[in-house]
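Slides due. Your pick:
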Amino acid sequence: MINQGALSALTAETVPTSYVEAGGITFAYRKFGAESEVPLVFCQRYRGTMDDWDPTVVNGIAKERTVILFDSAGVGLSTGVTPNNVPDMADYAITFIEALGLKQVDLIGFSMGGMVAQHVTLKRPDLVRRLILAGTGPGAGEDTERSRNGVFEVMTTPVNEDKDFLFLFFEPTETSQAKGREYLERLQWRKTDRAPLVTAETIKAQTQALIGFAAGPDTAYPRLAEIKQPVLVANGDNDIMAPTINSFIMSQHIPNAQLILYPDSGHGFLFQYPERFVLHVSAFLSE
């Protein structure tokens, strides 16, 4: 086991991958950063693995607290089969957190990971101290919107190329596109022990999960008032994947939520403004 002093010297590029078995799954994870009583667990997006987190974001947060990245069932370096619904994904996240012996965590959920994080909080409010919901929404509910026309077709293509990421995650402006290309370059900083791309089976299951959340069966919208934890809701000011209006609606229905919108940005706002996002997250978690 790596001691805390050694953990604080590691980065997203250098931390070795660890494994823990629970619930019939071998979960792959990476834990590092400054020692903190409550670690921050990252719940990843649709088709994302541990290696799709921006190292600038993760390393920035890790300067002040312990961070934990993980691949859920059937994703990346973890074993098992990916569930086709968000509540079951939340159960796996809870299983993973408990397998590490953690009694309480802060959660950050990006995109689909934000949907999972909402269900984790609703299922186990005792487990979650603070919650960050980035580029996500509450599911089907009054006045919520689906992703813009053309988005679903691009996000579900068998292989996403750089141009697809730039379309989905960044604004068509010169400034946003340039920041998007910088983000894609940062994703290559880690050279070894990288997670493989998600499989076609996982993409199919995750797509079904997104549809179930957006169409109503698994929506968190009716239960948002039950989330009593402090919540930071953040998004770009023109998210075409998880429409920005949904972030506003979500922040209005969660009793102790605050909302931050980032200019000239979309779904990938946290990768476009990594240093600013780190400042906001650190301030929120330290309150």
Observations:
- DSSP finds eleven helices and eight strands in the chain.
